Amino acid sequence: MTAETSTSIESAKAGGRSLTAIVLAAGKGTRMRSDLPKVLHAVAGRTMLGHVLAAAGEAGANRIAVVVELGQGTVASEIARAAPGASVHPQVERLGTAHAVLAARAALEAGSDDVVIAFGDTPLITGATLTRLRAPLADGAAVAVLAFTAENPTGYGRVLTQSGRVLAIREEKDASESERAVTLCNAGLMALSGTHALALLTRIGNDNAAGEYYLPDAVALAVADGLDVAVVPVDEAEAQGVNDRVQLSVAEATIQARLRRAAQIGGATLVAPETVFLSFDTVLGRDVLVEPHVVFGPGVTVGDHCVIHAFSHLEGATLAQGVSIGPYARLRPGAVLEAGSRIGNFVEMKNARLGEGAKANHLTYLGDAEIGPGANVGAGTITCNYDGVNKHRTTIGAGAFIGSNTALVAPVSVGAGAIVGAGSVITASIPDDALAIARSRQRIIEGVAGGMRAALQAIKASRSKKDD
């Protein structure tokens, strides 16, 4: 049984309607001035296309079809990662939005109760909005369009109504003067009854100023057939597409505001919310305190009662309850901090675990390491994990003490309760409860400091004369 079939069965058990989501993602994005396809630019740590695919899944899509530009392997790879099981349909010619939808004709012919058409460059659209968009179809509508009222409608297609009934959607370049005065604007996204979708889409023509096949023309065709057309309101900001870097930054600001609000409502304190940047999947527990200028990359989970001090950067990290990090801490993927552990200023962790109650308070790099409960790692300690070809692991036992300015040359282990003297270079494993000191013996030669100082001053004076 495929995942798609399983989802369909579960939907049927729940009395739900099947849904096919078609996502148009073939735009070149020339205004982005980028080698990266437009839909792969990220917002809050996730590609724009990833956001839309996630929204389609949240809306209950049991079949997702994505229309892409021919030859865009990187987009296809993102689809496979973000929505496993989604089908990919290349668009050979660019003849308008209705033409693009029909590139996924096979998905439409497979049949479903509802069809939702979305765009890969609208990252702010939510699953809840797509659910609202398809809702009128269950009440008998053949078409539902997403629309908003704009103070300045210039550039948008207008939703034309009469006595509360939708008549058509008119692109601005084809609109009359009176139609351009209409402020109800087409947001672009549309839902179609599976019963009528193909019949409407295949009848759309290209008799317009651009000579393109416009998806919104499905509305006039449905009205002419005596079918019901519904308008579903949406906030203008949510429906905005991203066409350039400026609009990308606007989308980022909007989604950050959403994420910050959700974190605060969920019980986290953000001291200066506007300076904290979250990813789409950031999880902050109750009574977490986040100081200013903190960045959360993807894959971060923070347990209850943690403190994230200022100017810290986290990605792919897991913090258990009561952990404290920073200021100026960097957690890279694979960093795990167990309950009550602490890292301080200018400490970096990567693919390493800090045991319960363990500490590394300053100026330390812990990579490919396992640090036991209650261990104390002194300032300037480095786990030398890379030999130029391969990575190696360092293990530090429970309750061990690592003196300042120690280099642990992996693979190496330090036993439980062991002590490493400051300034040591450890190349061999240390047993439990042992003391290891690995540094040159100190020598003291009395009475020579004055002579050395005088010689150095003479050299300095000589250089000053030459410079003159």
Written overview of the protein:
Its main location: cytoplasm. InterPro entries: Bifunctional_GlmU, GlmU-like, GlmU_C_LbH, Hexapep, Hexapep_transf_CS, MobA-like_NTP_Trfase, Nucleotide-diphossugar_trans, Trimer_LpxA-like_sf. The protein is an alpha/beta fold and 468 residues long. It has two domains: 3-233, Spore Coat Polysaccharide Biosynthesis Protein SpsA, Chain A, CATH 3.90.550; 245-436, Hexapeptide repeat proteins (UDP N-Acetylglucosamine Acyltransferase, domain 1, 3 Solenoid), CATH 2.160.10.10. The chain contains eleven helices and 35 strands.
Text of the CATH class of the largest domain: Alpha Beta
Radius of gyration: 31 Å
Q: Pick out the low-confidence regions.
A: 1-15
Helix residue percentage: 10-25%
Portion in strands: 25-35%
**How many β-strands, per DSSP?**
35
* CATH topology type of the largest domain: Spore Coat Polysaccharide Biosynthesis Protein SpsA, Chain A
Oligomerization: single chain
Main pleated sheet: 13 strands, parallel
Question: Whole-number average pLDDT?
Answer: 93
Which class of secondary structure composition applies to the elements? alpha/beta
N-to-C CA distance = 87 Å
